[in-house]
Amino acid sequence: MKLSEIKKMEDCGCFPTPVHELKNLGRELNCRLFIKRDDLTGLGFSGNKVRKLQYLVRDAKDRGYTTLLTFGGVQTNHGRQTAAVANKYGMKSVVIATVEDGRIPEKLSGNLLLDAILGCDVRFLDTSALKKGSPKLSPDEIKTETLKLRRIAADRVIAEYEEKGEKVYEMPAGGSTPIGCLGYFFAVKEIMDQLEQKNQKIDYLVCPTGSNGTYAGLWLGSRYFGAPFEVIGGCVSPHEEIYIENMVKFINETSQFLELNITAKRKDIHILCTECAGIAYDKPDEETFETIYKMARSEGLFIDPCYTGKGFTAVLKLLKSEKIPKGSSVLFIHTGGLPGLYSQQHLEKFSKDLWEGKEHSMVPLNR
Ligand SMILES: *Cc1c(COP(=O)(O)O)cnc(C)c1O
Questions:
Q1: What residues does 71 pair with on adjacent strands?
Q2: Nearest atom within ligand 1 for CA of residue 304
Q3: Are 271 and 233 in contact (CB under 8 A)?
Q4: Nearest CA to 53 among 19, 97, 98, 87?
Q5: Spatial distance between the Cα atoms of 150 and 356, rounded to a whole number of angstroms
Q6: What is the distance in A from the centroid of ligand 1 to the CA of 205?
Q7: Does ligand 1 come within 6 angstroms of the Cβ of 214?
Q8: Which pLDDT tens digit goes with each residue over 114-171?
């Protein structure tokens, strides 16, 4: 498909999102530090998936689909943004949410609350058996097996919807298809224009990476538009080398689909696979929380425990280890995810860190 043939919804979200400097952190870390505010994309509590969904929902609508279906964890940001976009364009939405412990949450929190408010049909998929088998599966093997279970679940749900006369547009987790990638492909152009207006050059662009679409889009866009910066990803769950191999494959498939004539090789891809990834997907470690507190307390901005807390930890580590040299200019993409701050498990951790056992005092009212 030619780039010029692919269209997007023009009124889906608020673009361009702002870019501004993080002066306090830059001073502390001996660099110029900037942030691209994709936590302000403007629809359904914002986030990076709105960029992808502009293209995906246009594709779905143009081809006569009536329902958007996607996958994720219970706290999927992509699911929430999919539901919001579906509502805006008069479609239905279904999210198939993996429950690794096999339990359907008793209470609404974070994204699940927002899904419910949006009226999204959330179905749960029990993958707890994958963690119990022997021999033990590696995280990447669990990922492969989860995909198989998702296929079975999706076929069921699609059949059910089709019976009711709906036409279901299926998107993988994170909306990471070649069409979805266009969101971040063109974000590169948006960023280059913004930097030119500010007369500011940057050397490195850093983003969190999960289902590949954001990094792949940025990487391809940076080559296509001749950007003068390197794109670095920070994984949000620990991975082996296979993550990078898969990224290369995905980038090249996308490049082929879009007829870009750009080829990625292993050595061109810069991703921290484990250093900032915390314990597992949506399981941050102490360092992730330290990063969240640091950002809030030095710049007054929130980042989240599942994605951006880890992604920004990558920035801190790259600077500390001088893999990004002192004096460089770095742009971090804030991909959103803020409802995650209010998800049940993270609320418990925040309470432990910041509230329980601390002294709280009532202001005395006697004169
Ligand atoms: C999905 C998501 C990411 C990762 O983007 P991918 O395209 O899946 O790699 C990063 N940050 C947030 C907040 C997200 O929701």
A1: 96
A2: 13
A3: yes
A4: 87
A5: 39
A6: 15
A7: yes
A8: 999 999 999 999 999 998 877 888 887 888 999 999 999 999 999 999 999 999 999 9
